[in-house]
């Protein structure tokens, strides 16, 4: 395609009128404690994967909550399921189960991570 | 202390509670209220945070207190001037009524913020933008509906309307709106379980006992979604719903959504009587509230001998805090009356 020197940017706006907020309900059915997450970030602060990669559990969880699934499957693959995040959560959120179940819900929706 | 009298200006919770304590000790109390009945802002409320007790029980108790023969309750009387004359305090309603007593207690309380001043939020412009006080009025009728009579599928609550906003001149936190939003979101979800409730906030300030527990319950049991971000503007859609814009600050993305009803959690401002009577007596503090002598141990005193303060004329307070403050003011007044 001819390069005109400019491109059209996709809107970044989160549109709650069209976003899929129902998949999060499916997750919460499996992990009721997910509702309690305050987004404090203690999970991410203690995360071993976060030290070496850009994996951010808090943000991944939030984007799932907002129905923004693109790229999440790849992100989740960076988690080693060590469970340290669960130990530090001040609201007793089962973070490890959230990761596990996000993977299941995403794969049901055919969001696949890149095969290694 | 024989035959000593106290004039209390403001027949809300602080005034009534202080009148109760003083009258029970044999003092003659004149309780003056500008509107036609006692109760102040509590008259607008149905249930109280954080335990959902009935505001009507509180009001019934007020009516009982006012039966005390040592309390003379005077309604429909707005005091326009208050001053000291020797060892007495004089309160006047224009020129037709004069009340004289040995001590005066200011319990002129607060008024809710006028949401029309935040024009960008559309209150008074769009029918489906309401305030937390309007919500209570609607809740009193047993159902929450849009202006068109439809049961909302989506509702949004916005905190800090008129609070923590230098654009309206109020730098302070009103303290009660966060927990009130949690309470109203739960009340809404109980009425309409399948609807979605969103609450926009800058900080959720759950500093009272059992507030955090209620906040947690609203998420866990009722699925209320909290979004950290201040709604910048609201506009009506073609079908008279309300489109709101905010930043979802936790994801650092702009967001928009359409809701059926937007509830503005209006803050606490000093009442006009609080400001005017404080100004006359040189006890005017910041934001039009009354200024006590000091926060520690002399919070009911003023720099004027025999003039006392209680309740939300000083600053935003919750109802239990107001009651406690009124009782402490009564103790100070009795102490003072023994010295004159």
Question: TL;DR?
Answer:
Helix content of chain A is 45%, strand content 2%. With 116 residues, chain A is mostly helical. Helices cover 25% and strands 27% of the residues of chain B.
Number of domains of chain B: 2
Q: Estimate percent helicity of chain A.
A: 40-55%
Q: Structural class from helices and strands of chain B?
A: alpha/beta
User: Would you list the SSEs of chain B in sequence order as H and E?
Assistant: EHEEEHEEEEEEEHEHEHEEEEEEHEH
Read across the widest sheet of chain B, the strand sequence of neighbours is 5-2-1-9-20
Amount of beta strand of chain A: under 5%
What string gives the helices and strands of chain A in order?
Answer: EHHHHHHH
Give the overall silhouette of chain A.
globular
Q: Give the CA-CA distance, first to last residue of chain A.
A: 30 Å
* CATH class category label of the largest domain in chain B: Alpha Beta
Q: Report the count of strand segments of chain B.
A: 20
List segments of chain B where confidence is low: pLDDT < 50 over at least 5 consecutive residues.
none
Oligomer: heterodimer
Helix content of chain B: 25-40%
- The appropriate CATH architecture of the largest domain in chain B is 3-Layer(bba) Sandwich
Low-pLDDT residue spans of chain A:
none
**Chain pair forming the biggest interface:** A-B, 20 and 15 residues
The Rg value of chain B, from CA coordinates, equals: 22 Å
Mind telling me the C-alpha Rg of chain A? 16 Å
Structural class of chain A: mainly alpha
Would you give an account of this structure?
The complex is a heterodimer of chains A (116) and B (340). Chain A has 116 residues and is an all-alpha fold. Chain A has a domain at 37-108. Helices cover 45% and strands 2% of the residues of chain A. Chain A is built from 7 helices and 1 strand. By secondary structure, chain B is α/β, with parallel strands linked by helices. Helices cover 25% and strands 27% of the residues of chain B. Chain B contains 7 helices and 20 strands. Chain B has helices at 13-24, 55-65, 132-140, 177-191, 211-220, 272-280, 319-337; strands spanning 5-9, 28-32, 47-48, 53-54, 71-74, 81-85, 88-93, 97-101, 103-106, 110-112, 129-131, 154-161, 196-201, 225-228, 233-236, 242-248, 253-259, 261-266, 268-270, 307-309. In chain B, the strands form 6 sheets. Chain B has a 5-stranded parallel beta sheet, with helices on one face. In chain B, strands 11-18-12-13-14 form a 5-stranded parallel beta sheet. Chain B has a 3-stranded antiparallel beta sheet with strand order 6-7-8. In chain B, strand 16 (242-248) and strand 17 form a beta hairpin. The chains are: A mainly alpha (116), B alpha/beta (340). At the A-B interface, strand 1 and helix 4 of A face helix 5 and strand 17 of B. Strand 1 of chain A pairs parallel with strand 17 of chain B, so a sheet runs across the interface.
């Amino acid at each position: 395609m001819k390069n005109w020197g400019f491109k059209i940017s996709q809107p970044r706006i989160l549109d709650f009128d069209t976003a899929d907020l129902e998949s999060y309900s499916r997750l919460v059915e499996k992990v009721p404690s997910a509702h309690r997450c305050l987004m404090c970030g203690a999970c991410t602060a203690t995360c071993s994967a976060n030290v070496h990669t850009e994996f951010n559990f808090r943000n991944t969880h939030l984007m799932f909550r907002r129905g923004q699934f693109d790229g999440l499957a790849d992100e989740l693959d960076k988690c080693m399921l060590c469970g340290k995040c669960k130990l530090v959560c001040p609201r007793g959120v089962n973070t490890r189960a959230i990761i596990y179940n996000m993977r299941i819900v995403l794969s049901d929706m055919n969001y696949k991570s890149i095969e290694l | 202390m024989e035959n000593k009298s106290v004039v209390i200006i403001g027949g809300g919770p602080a005034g009534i509670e202080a009148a109760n304590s003083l009258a029970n000790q044999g003092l003659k109390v004149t309780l003056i209220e500008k509107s036609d009945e006692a109760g102040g802002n509590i008259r607008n409320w149905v249930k109280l945070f954080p335990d959902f007790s009935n505001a009507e029980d509180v009001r019934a108790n007020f009516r009982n207190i006012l039966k005390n023969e040592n309390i003379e309750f005077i309604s429909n009387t707005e005091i326009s001037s208050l001053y000291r004359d020797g060892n007495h305090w004089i309160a006047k309603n224009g020129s037709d009524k004069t009340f004289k007593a040995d001590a005066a207690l200011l319990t002129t309380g607060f008024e809710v913020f006028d949401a029309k001043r935040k024009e960008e939020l559309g209150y008074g412009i769009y029918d489906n933008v309401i305030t937390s006080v309007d919500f209570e009025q609607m809740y009193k009728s047993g159902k929450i509906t849009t202006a068109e009579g439809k049961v909302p599928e989506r509702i949004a609550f916005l905190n800090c309307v008129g609070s923590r906003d230098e654009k309206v001149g109020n730098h302070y936190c009103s303290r009660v709106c966060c927990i009130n939003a949690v309470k109203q979101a739960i009340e809404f979800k109980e009425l309409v379980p399948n609807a979605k409730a969103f609450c926009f906030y800058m900080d959720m300030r759950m500093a009272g006992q059992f507030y955090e527990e209620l906040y947690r319950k609203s998420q866990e049991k009722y699925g209320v979604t909290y979004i950290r971000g201040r709604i910048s503007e609201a506009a009506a859609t073609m079908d008279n719903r309300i489109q709101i814009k905010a930043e979802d600050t936790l994801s650092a993305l702009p967001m928009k959504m359409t809701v059926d009803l937007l509830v503005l959690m209006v803050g606490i401002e000093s009442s006009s009587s609080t400001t005017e009577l404080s100004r006359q007596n040189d006890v005017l503090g910041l934001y039009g509230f009354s200024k006590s002598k000091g926060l520690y141990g002399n919070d009911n005193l003023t720099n004027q001998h025999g003039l006392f303060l209680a309740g939300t004329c000083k600053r935003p307070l919750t109802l239990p805090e107001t009651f406690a403050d009124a009782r402490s003011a009564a103790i100070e007044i009795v102490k003072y009356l023994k010295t004159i």
